[in-house]
Design goal:
This protein has helices spanning 6-12, 57-72; strands at 19-22, 26-30, 38-44, 80-83, 99-103. It is of the alpha+beta class. The radius of gyration is 14 Å and the shape is globular. The mean pLDDT is 94. The chain binds guanosine-5'-monophosphate and zinc ion. Guanosine-5'-monophosphate binds at residues 6, 17, 29-33, 41, 85, 91-94.
């Protein structure tokens, strides 16, 4: 828990967010400023500032497993794209590691993202 971190505040309930799914170590919320018709953020409940700090393979594995679970439970999410921005110059703006789950749009809609 980092008291300055917006995702930690969402996880503790101090800030509100549209929650999509949850497991023991992961939360999934809707992105506040969606860049695709489906844009979720898959977030570990424990605070790691970025992927280099995330040294627990069970947590990094859980991020992917959660993406699989979201897809398996909704036929409209059969095809999806996962994205992690790591570091400021690569577009990371919230320094609590998270994976973007993007779906429901054509791949050409993502030209500015990849
Ligand atoms: P990054 O740029 O760090 O990879 O992604 C941060 C994401 O968090 C952005 O897509 C941004 O729209 C989203 N975001 C920023 N603040 C909030 C917030 O308060 N609530 C939610 N749900 N998403 C947020
Ligand atoms: Zn945090």
């Amino acid at each position: 828990m980092n008291t300055e971190c917006i995702f930690c505040k969402i996880i503790t309930g101090e800030l509100s967010a549209d929650k999509v799914a949850e497991s023991d170590n992961i939360i999934v919320i809707k992105d506040k400023f969606p860049k695709a018709s489906v844009h979720y953020l898959i977030i570990p409940k424990q605070h790691y500032r970025d992927l280099l700090e995330l040294d627990d393979c069970s947590v990094s594995g859980s991020l992917i497993q959660m993406a699989r679970s979201l897809s398996e439970h909704n036929s409209e999410l059969r095809d999806f794209k996962l994205l992690i921005n790591n570091g400021y110059s690569m577009g990371q703006r919230v320094f609590h590691v998270h994976m973007h789950f993007l779906a429901g749009s054509k791949i050409s809609d993502f030209e500015n993202l990849i």
